[in-house]
Amino acid sequence: MALTTTDFDTIAAISTPPGEGGISIVRISGDDAIKVADKLYRGKNLDKVASNTINYGHIIDPETGEEADEVMVSVMRAPHTYTKENLIEINCHGGIVATNKVLQLVLSNGARMAEPGEFTKRAFLNGRIDLSQSEAVMDLIEAKTDRSMKAAISQLDGNLSHLIKHLRKDILDVLAQVEVNIDYPEYDDVETMTSKLLREKAKDVHARIVQLLKTAKQGKILRDGLATSIIGRPNVGKSSLLNNLLHEDKAIVTDVPGTTRDVLEEYVNVRGVPLKLVDTAGIRKTTNKVEKIGVERSKKAIQSSDLVLLVLNASEELTDEDRELIKATSGKKRIIILNKTDLPLKLDIAQVNGLTNGDKVIQAAAIKDDGLKDLEEQIAKMFFEEGIENSQNDVMVTNARHIGLLNKAKQALEDVLKGLDDGMPVDLVQIDMTRCWDFLGEITGDSYQDELIDQLFSQFCLGK
Description:
Layout: E1 11-14, E2 23-29, H1 33-40, E3 41-42, E4 53-60, E5 67-76, E6 87-93, H2 96-107, E7 112-113, H3 118-125, H4 131-142, H5 146-156, H6 159-183, H7 190-213, H8 216-224, E8 226-231, H9 238-246, E9 264-270, E10 273-279, H10 289-303, E11 307-313, H11 320-328, E12 334-339, H12 349-355, E13 361-363, H13 372-383, H14 400-421, H15 426-444, H16 450-457
Parallel strand pairs: 1-7, 8-10, 8-11, 11-12, 12-13
Antiparallel strand pairs: 1-2, 2-6, 3-4, 4-5, 5-6, 9-10
Helix pairs in contact: 4-5, 6-7, 6-15, 7-14, 14-15
């Protein structure tokens, strides 16, 4: 059951990023939010202004009478607010000193400092949004591409929640029917009828969960990004490739081998796919202590990557180091990039094709931005097999926690079917059906533990 606004004290936090800017917002939520703000505000009586209005005035220190800032104060009354509590947003002049001064006055006059994610936590506990929608708030904040933003908005709108709730309702209906059949048998073949009912529903829900899980791979990529390592021996153009994908000179580019000594990480949007690009140090045998550390980190980056971009120098013959890298990355999804094609070709492309077992080979001149469109298209096709433009389904699973719970629910249904096949009594089989119902409930927060809630919302930013 959702808690009411009177179950909570009044909290406050700065909801905008720290630093200089046009405005900063101090947010206050709770039963006494309007009362707290009115102690500091000089202007209209906030207790009497209409809800969903913004009001001009000043924030004054009630003890000294000193003016802290010229502000606009938004007043939103429960229950039609983000938290379903009385909510105040004080729009200050952007700046650390003014904003902190206003916040300290709020905290000194009846509010306490909010914990990370506590505003959204209250929205959940007060029943405005469910747990999956709460998690979508952070996904929306952290979205790295338009496509990942749309996936987060879809979840925030409740599309996933509605689907999960329909699944749980179907399971609950069949469980209720099973209980009736067991407690009030009217026919001799009640066991057979009940088993048939359980089997049909288990197969139906199982198929719908499997369909949902098919979106998990793409969804997780949209949410977390595709870990992509740019690998190659020194001076083959890895940093030039990174800079061109980023459209900025992030990595130092010289003709001196070993310039990149460490692993550089950046996010880039490739056809709606967020790539977590890792520009690694050139992998080669070296006696330089610092470069050697970089080489070891590069090798570790290969193992943790979803995709490897293996860069070879097309203006040189294939070296033993190139062959070792081809072998070292053979177990990963990869694209071979023959760079520096603007120079005279010396690399035997047929030899490369023979060593790479049919992996996609792209010719490019990264320093001139040639071949990168082909590379981006290949990445999109590789991870969105249906085509990137058609990959955005109405419901897409993006959260690792949700994926894990869906897999558990799927396994519970498979246990139901196996139990029926083995001739287990219906009252034992329905235990696994109930487990499936519980696992799905953990996604939306219909069933949860306090420790889970605390852990999830602690990952939110302060003021959200």
